[in-house]
Amino acid sequence: MGHKPYGIYEKYLKRPLDCFLALCALVILSPVIGIAAFFVSINLGRPVLFTQERLGKDEKIFKLYKLRSMSNARDREGKLLCDDERMTKFGKILRSTSIDELPELLNIVKGDMSVIGPRPLLAEYKPFYTKREHRRHDVRPGLSGLAQMNGRNANSWDTMFRLDLEYVDKITFLGDVKIIWGTVWKVFKRADIYAGAEKCEGRLDVERLKGKKGKQADE
User: Closest Cα partner for 119 from 140, 94, 93?
Assistant: First the structure.
């Protein structure tokens, strides 16, 4: 059974409010984004923005925008080095402060994302979802979500999905406000975050997911 909006907030107010908040944040934070982009160009070169295909609402693929946090370092054969080797001290600062996430405000304005919702994962993980886990894509992915308020990048795959589905099952205005403030507090404290190469919301352990798929009959 597909997801059905639960009330006036989710049906009529959430999307307009997303656009309003994202536009306000873009205006207020434009100096921060501009300064960060300048230092990205100096420390990591161009392009300043990093784009990556992620799964959105109804499992449609969209391009997620971030500030680059890794170099383009390559081996002798011209192949990119692994993520951990390309992660710089500057990139770790961007990630630990979540400044690299600010361009995702553009994704919100475009309609790819919401302020609050399950974090968008790489499209390559779609085959590893259980039937129930696919429900996380019944709503727009978010800049932050229930999983980010409760552990951020430190969550395991199973914990993240449990919290994502808990959110999808009941979306309310007060719930979103609570997640926003909880996320701001986590960012301010720089708590429960992995500042290295993508983890949990990005590059998960594919081999582990393949094993997980083989053990679950409903996938």
Answer: 140
37-88, pLDDT tens digit by residue? 999 999 888 899 989 999 999 999 999 999 998 877 666 776 766 767 677 8
Reference 182, options 139, 208, 152; nearest CA is 152
Tell me the C-alpha to C-alpha distance, in Å, between residue 121 and each of 2, 41, 105, 177: 20, 26, 17, 23
User: Into how many domains does the chain fold?
Assistant: 1
This prediction's pTM? 0.82
Q: Is residue 95 part of a domain?
A: yes
Contact predicate 67/40, CB 8 Å: yes
- Supply angle C-alpha 191, 208, 119, rounded to 5: 40
Q: Which residues pair with 66 in a beta bridge?
A: 50
Give the Å distances, CA to CA, from 42 to 52, 67, 114, 219: 22, 13, 31, 45
Strands 142-144 and 114-116: parallel
What are the backbone angles phi and psi of residue 160, rounded to the nearest 5°? -60, -45
Domain boundaries, position 68: 8-215
At 146, phi and psi to the nearest 5?
A: -60, -35
- Quote the CA–CA distance of 10 and 67 in Å, as a whole number: 30
